[in-house]
Amino acid sequence: MSPISSISRRHRPAFVVSSLAAGLLLGAASSASAATFNGSGAITTDYVWRGTTQTQGDPAVQAGFKVAADNGLYGAVWGSNVEFAPDTKASSELDVTVGWSGNVAEDWALDVNLTHYRYPSTTADLDWTEAIGTLTWKENYWAQLGYSNDALATDEAGTYAQLGAKFPVGEQLRLEAAAGYYWLDDAYDASYAHAQLGMVWAFKAPFEIRVTAHATDRSARTLFPGLAGSRVEAALQTSF
Asked: 55-72 pLDDT, tens per residue?
């Protein structure tokens, strides 16, 4: 059998995304003059994703790395600690992304990618892959759409949409706001909405302090009891 045919259909997206990311990383590394490298890091009081905590409200340490070719293709990896139900034994998350980003018109930029969410420490089958597109206007306003036929590793389809904006307040401060809706009717016979409002203080480049308030609707609290609802997180973050 070929390497791909020997892998189960469920895990082929992980194999493909990881292989593409590795190819982009190696290709860019062999031609450094035609590539850009950057990274990010954060220490946060809570890891909140689409309105729900991924660490049971506990702190998280996060880091990421991205390499982009001059034609817009890029590969990225990002990781964080997580804390799910005890029986899953999940303690870490590793996201592998391959995509393309670039300007499509004056003031407009597009990012399209495949992101694979992987939980290497778990004994459960929690890994899944999502296609995500983000359209940005003037670098401060965005609309995002994500789709997966295996949303949250349920083997069912899910679609996520988000609208967001950044509002500069002076040279060091900015406000960030976003609202999202997650259609999960196929997986859970329910969907939910969430919103967030944050303030970022760029007190000393490249370091920033971010404080974000999150809120979800009642449906989210029913779907994810104890994980959704209202919460505030604070983070020290940097990029390089």
From this structure: 999 999 999 999 999 999
Amino acid at 200: V
Work out the burial of residue 105: count CB atoms within 10 Å of its CB; fewer than 13 is exposed, 13-18 middle, 19 or more buried.
exposed
Q: Which amino acid is at 212?
A: T
Spatial distance between the Cα atoms of 13 and 122, rounded to a whole number of angstroms: 18
- Please report, for residues 103, 126, 229, the alpha-carbon distance to residue 111 in angstroms, rounded to integers and kept in the order given: 9, 26, 30
Tokens at 84, concatenated: 């799910």
Q: Are 140 and 109 within 8 A, CB to CB?
A: no
In a domain, 174, yes or no: yes
pLDDT digits (tens, 9 = 90+) for 217-226: 999 999 999 9
Instruction: Identify the CATH number of the domain in which residue 211 sits.
Output: 2.40.160.40
Question: 86: helix, coil or strand?
Answer: helix
Our measurement of the distance from residue 11's CA atom to the centroid of its chain's CA atoms, rounded to an integer in Å, reads 20
Residue 224 lies in a domain: yes
In whole angstroms, how far apart are CA 79 and each of 61, 69, 145, 196, 234?
Answer: 8, 22, 22, 22, 18
Q: Is residue 2 part of a domain?
A: no
Within a domain: 4? no
58 within 8 A of 83, measured Cβ to Cβ: yes
Distance CA 219, CA 193 (A): 8
Q: Give yes or no for residue 115 having a pLDDT over 50.
A: yes
Show Cβ contacts of residue 28 under 8 Å, excluding neighbours closer than 6 positions. Answer: 34, 35, 37, 67, 68, 69, 75
- Structural domain for 219, as ranges: 9-239
Distance CA(163)–CA(165), nearest Å, equals: 7
